[in-house]
Give the backbone structure.
Amino acid sequence: MKTQWKISPYLYVLPALLLLFLFRTIPVIMSLVIGFFEWEITGSGSFIGVKNYSTMFADEVFWQSITNTIWFVLFVVPASIVFPLLFASLLNQIKRLKSLFRIMYFLPFVTSMVAVSIVWKIIFAEKAGLANTMLGIVGIAPQKWLAESTGIFQLLANTVNLQLPTWMAGPSLALVSIIIVTIWKGLGYNTIIYLAGLQNIPKDYYEAADIDGASKFKQFFKLTIPLVSPTTFYVLLMTTITSFQAFSQVYLMTDKGGPLNTTKLIVYYIYERGFDALDMGYASAVALFLFIILLLLTILQRRLERHVHY
Amino acid sequence: MTNTLRMSTIYFLLTIFGLFMILPFIWMISTSLMTQSEFNKNEAIFIPKEQYHVWEDGTQSQRILVVMDKGDSTVVHVLNKELKIEQEYLSIPSNQIKEVIKKPSLSWENFKKAFNKVPFGIYFANTLYVSFSSLIGVLLTSFLAAYALARMEFKGKNFIFLLFISMMMVPEPIYLISSYMLLDKLSWLDTYKALIVPWCVNVFTIFLFRQHFKSLPKELFDAAMIDGASTFGMLWRIILPLSKPIIATASVFSLIGSWNSFMWPLVMTNRPELRVLQVGLSYFNQEASTQTTLLMAASTFSIVPILILFFLAQKQIIASAAKTGMKD
């Protein structure tokens, strides 16, 4: 009986532990090493030191994919915080039809990125696409959307005949189209998380604020936003990590990260180097770079959270 | 601002946002029911319609194709019942031509055509097989591991717990390349095993179950121990029946996850007969890129099973999605 008690806990965790070790831990450790080898298609590698890394730092497409990814994250993350917080605070004030609205907002989140990307690709079609039809209704000229490599800020400046320096042109309209899809897809999840966070705030706070005569507007900025900050940190961390991983949208909506590589995000670049160019060592070097970025961001956000936590 | 005005503003805003969220789906469905020429003309944005001309000379009415309008008279092709050209270049008085618009005119053939163009039946079967196999694996491994982590004391428990958490934090793209090489070494590439076995463990589910086991009263376990129930028997007879709701929730999440997973099966399989739905759909996207209405039909039927699952379990899905985002 006694020995049975000592062995059995390990037997219970063994299946999960074994699978996790074999298919997560080992690959993660491997990915630290693979970047230092040159891998042939036959599967045998030869040690080449930091050559993949020096190639990477001199690779213009790599840096462009980093720039694209940074633009992508800078657009997706704030929008995925502001809109869900707004939706959730509105939802939190109603009683009727609440679940209907929740379903409407959550719907894109459960559907597959593949199907959704196909639909949005057609929405952004230059001819007969819904986006241009809608623009036509409000009297704006049709756009090239996914085929437009010009930066969004430059496109805006064009309307007043202004030429911006290249570094100020911003992400291409093609990348912005992909950003729109990504924000739309994730809004519902963050809204639900915020709604749960808002419901945790005691009602007395608002009642006290009402008695003090604070306007709803003021209550939102002075009460809701600070009190919901733990949720904001969670949403910030999760959305940042997931938006660095965007892949399917690029694969399905663009022609290999085009036009002019402006939609080539970092994970798509890893896929392309690894499975199109069959340069697994190089692809793995880029993957390790991404891993380090994500790790640093996680640590940074945890540090920040400790300071800001109310 | 009065209260009614405030509430109507809130409802108005929520409706506008809600419509924006579901607009792509509505458009997807309406486009999937149009003919390709109808879509290209872009006249019926949401409601599919059929538009044609008829020649009515008082005694009979026949479908025609207008070739050239010459003012008082028009040159037309006259069509027979099968819509084949019966008489070419006939000049008829313009005032005998009538335009007919039928709406809605739904072309369900898109679904049939899309389904038969590529073997979507096989893709569906593959997806179901892979999803349910890994679901069984996930439930088994998670149930056992979570039980030990929640209810037993043993050496190295904290280390195992930490390992689980840290593995959950590593995103899939990081270990994609190395997993490919590992599966290559195991000769598992291009097999169902590659799609199933690595996904038979899910740390999120382990935590979900662990939380649930911790919430069950301790007396329940003690009573069972006094009765002499073996640990495994206790798990089977007492804990399992009490865990049905949480198992249902975990299953729905696991099914949605594997149904929608794309990058892994795209990379790990190559043979067409092994394609899962998402991979098949992405190849169809490349092959039929100009056949918009077929693409929309294929997207629609690829989403439907998940939508049914979502509507059946939307309360639990939304509730547990909210829970995962909360700090305890």
Notes: Chain B is about 65% helix and 10% strand. The mean pLDDT of chain B is 87.
